[in-house]
Amino acid sequence: MKQSQLFTRTLKEAPKDETSFNAQTLIRAGFIDKVGAGIYTFLPLGLRVMSKITNIIREEINAVGGQEILMPTLVPKENWVATGRWDNFDALFKLQGSDKKEYALGATHEEVVTPLIQKYAFSYKELPIAVYQIQTKLRNEKRAKAGLIRGREFLMKDLYSFHTNQADLDAYYEKVKDAYFKIYERFGLADLTYLTYASGGAFSKYSHEFQTLISDGEDHIFICDKCHVAVNREIIEEQNTCPVCHNPKLKEEKGVEVGNIFKLGTKFSAAFDFRYRDQEGQEQDIIMGCYGIGPSRLMGTIVEVYHDEKGIIWPETVAPFKVHLLSLNEDEAALKIYETLTQAGIEVLYDDRNLSAGEKFADADLIGCPYRVLISAKTIQVDSVELKKRAEGKSELIKIKDLVAKLK
Ligand code: ATP
Ligand code: MG
Q1: Atom of ligand 1 nearest to the CA of 256
Q2: In angstroms, what is the span from residue 74 Cα to ligand 1's centroid?
Q3: Do residues 372 and 360 lie in contact, with contact meaning Cβ atoms separated by under 8 Å?
Q4: Rounded CA separation 264/355 (Å)
Q5: What pLDDT, in 10s, does the model give residues 237-281?
Q6: Is the CB–ligand 1 distance for residue 263 below 6 Å?
Q7: What residue ranges of the chain have pLDDT lower than 70?
Q8: Which CATH superfamily is domain 3-308 in?
């Protein structure tokens, strides 16, 4: 992509009404645009990052047998009445259709997925089933001040699994837990992300949150350094030692919940009277699990973790482009390199704009592609470019003919 053609530009200053680092920086760098509190447009750069995040999640959830579907945002009131959540789910947006019927905007989808699976799974032969979606959720959040970390409209990957017995759910739950760690690993967040024990409701002692440590985190968690697990604030009352090694010295930290997994038991299947027939033809309860991850919250979290005073430092797996190519008045040679790299399948943002070196450097640092390739009169003299990693201070001269191999 040529930067002269890119919609949009970087901004000199962050909007005054944004207080979170992630929103200020993503807006200034041209990844997102603010529409209202907790409401954002994803611009070309931001959408590239978001697609990479969702594709990684998709790959890992497909690998544990999740089948992707897409459920509606508009959900009839009766589905929510059936589970008792029409009046009890705070932050539910409600509206009326032209048919005078009432609807909720999807804040989570147990109310849609449970009757969906019920239409198809009558017998043990059809189970287990795991379906998921990556979809826009709407919640009337009271505090939407953390940028992408707490949107009122945001993306969620929500996976739901349906089982014939508790042991089958328990085994699947562990598989998803592993898949989640693979996902956070691929975002470069594994070291900072703690499996966090939270209270489990009626069907299990614990549920699990995945909390990533950030300095501006809204959640308080209590971590065990030895086991790399944590306890959340609500259960520290009953569980004030490490749930794994019983270490009593837990350290309080601030985190952001980047995912959670939950054994639902029969809570939703019972609400819809969803049962299956076993081998003997007897009716039995369906046992459910649900598993959420917030891709847009993750994008904000990655920015909170990976930055310096100049801007973002994207992990390579989610960067909008791998390479930011800067030409200092050597447009002909730069264009050739741009074409060669692009043909080799390397994603390049080529700064072909008529701006000063200082402005180009500042934008490259702000946007945060992992590699900066600079071509100038000086480097050309020795048939080279200057290659610098965004995360490192030092640069090296690389022969132009070796560049593709170096970057591959
Ligand atoms: P929180 O306690 O932070 O409000 P939650 O418990 O309401 O989160 P869930 O309903 O379990 O979250 O949603 C699943 C995932 O969706 C969360 O782990 C998080 O990653 C993401 N998520 C939830 N609410 C938001 C939001 N307002 N903006 C962005 N992502 C969100
Ligand atoms: Mg919430």
Answers
A1: 3
A2: 19
A3: no
A4: 57
A5: 999 999 999 999 999 999 999 999 999 999 999 999 999 999 999
A6: no
A7: none
A8: Bira Bifunctional Protein; Domain 2 (3.30.930.10)
